[in-house]
Amino acid sequence: MDMKRIIICDFDETITDRDTIGILGQLPYVVKPEFEPKWSYFTDTYMANYKKFLENPALLGCEDELRRKLPLLSSNVSDITCSNFQSLFNDEIRYQLNAKNLEISSTSEMAKYGLFAGINHWQVYQFVQERMSEGSFSLRNGFKEFMASVSAKQFFIISVNWSAEFIRGAVGEELVELDNVYCNQLVSDGDTFTGQFSNQLLTGSDKVSFIEKIYQNQCCQGTEQQYWYIGDSETDILALLHPKVNGVLLIDPELKEQKFRKLTIEILGIDENLINRFVSSREIGWLQCYVKNQENSLYLAKSWFDLTNINTNTD
Fold first, then answer.
1. Which InterPro entries match (predicted)?
2. Above 50 in pLDDT, residue 22?
3. Neighbour-count burial of 41, counting CB atoms closer than 10 A to its CB (0-12 exposed, 13-18 middle, 19+ buried)
4. Among residues 303, 297, 204, which one has the least CA distance to residue 260?
5. What is the Cα–Cα distance from 199 to 209, expressed in whole angstroms?
6. pLDDT, tens digit (0-9, with 9 covering 90-100), for 58-75
7. Full set of structural domains in the chain with CATH
8. Which residues contact 231 (CB under 8 A, 6 or more apart)?
9. Residue 89: which of 117, 69, 60, 61 has the closest Cα?
């Protein structure tokens, strides 16, 4: 029986070369040039609430003390299985659940002012094409080549971005089906945004829920399947560690060394000597660094081209 690969992927900075939330945030001011308040108001509000979240989370309705046990892969974590995943990472899951309050404080403010209200899907697609053609952002090198062997039906995106229309417009309609894009979706009435947010996908703990949803929907199709989750940020960490997937942390340390070291050493707890060798060697493009559930692994990869090599070597 042929092995079917299910590819589940983050969007911002995993597929794209930079974060696109700020770019999407300019769309209302293109469609509604006189709109007030300006985008800086929403970013300033978010940063003020982020400071509260760090210093006094109770102000946002969170637990008084957000305990986070780092690194996540401490010496007492011998294996990650379906039966122990929730208990092993209970503190991290609770931390992420509390972080929802921070994200909702941001989307609620945008919804209150109707920032995206009245914008239609065609305007989103047009905006994406314009921004990509002028170089505001692009897809990471190697992504299109990787996708050449992936069916749109087997490709899913899980993102804390706000618009599946924006995401699909950037990735390419031929590469991903709209129903396979899960995000903190702007609610639509027909093909027009109401200005409200679904608030269904806000943090890393939500990503885990959607991975399990995809797994449940796919596993009953009668073919042998292998699941991959690809991401680049702290929001992806729980998904990368999920026992049902091969997780790939996709960061080029030559471009983002500080971020890479924080995630691998400080958050995950991967051996620093191993990381140093990976960072310093241009000949090593990917690395298997942890086995989960006795069948899946956690990998590091520098590029989509290197990710293709992982897939080739795990056939």
1. HAD-like_hydrolase_phosphatase, HAD-like_sf, HAD_sf
2. yes
3. middle
4. 303
5. 14
6. 999 998 777 788 999 987
7. 3-28+37-69+78-313 (3.40.50.1000)
8. 9, 10, 14, 237, 239, 240, 247, 248, 249, 250
9. 69
Read out DSSP for 272-294?
Answer: HHHHHHHHH-SS--EEEEEEETT
- pLDDT tens digits, 138-172: 999 999 999 999 999 999 999 999 999 999 999 99
Two tokens, residue 46? 């978010």
Task: Please give the average per-residue pLDDT across 97-106, as a whole number.
Answer: 96
How many other C-beta atoms can be found within 10 angstroms of the C-beta atom of residue 180? 18
Strand partners for 3: 224
What DSSP state is assigned to residue 51?
H
Closest CA to 14 of 292, 293, 302, 314: 302
For residue 312, the model assigns a pLDDT of 63
pLDDT of residue 2: 63
Give how far the C-alpha of residue 17 lies from the chain's centroid of Cα atoms, to the nearest Å: 13
Say whether pLDDT at 269 is over 90. yes
Three-state DSSP at 68 gives: coil
Q: For position 1, what pLDDT does the model report? A: 43
Calculate the average pLDDT of the chain.
95
**Given the structure tokens 């040039």, which residue do they identify?**
33
E strand segments, 105-214: 155-158, 181-182, 186-189, 192-197
Helix (H) or strand (E) holding 23: helix 21-24
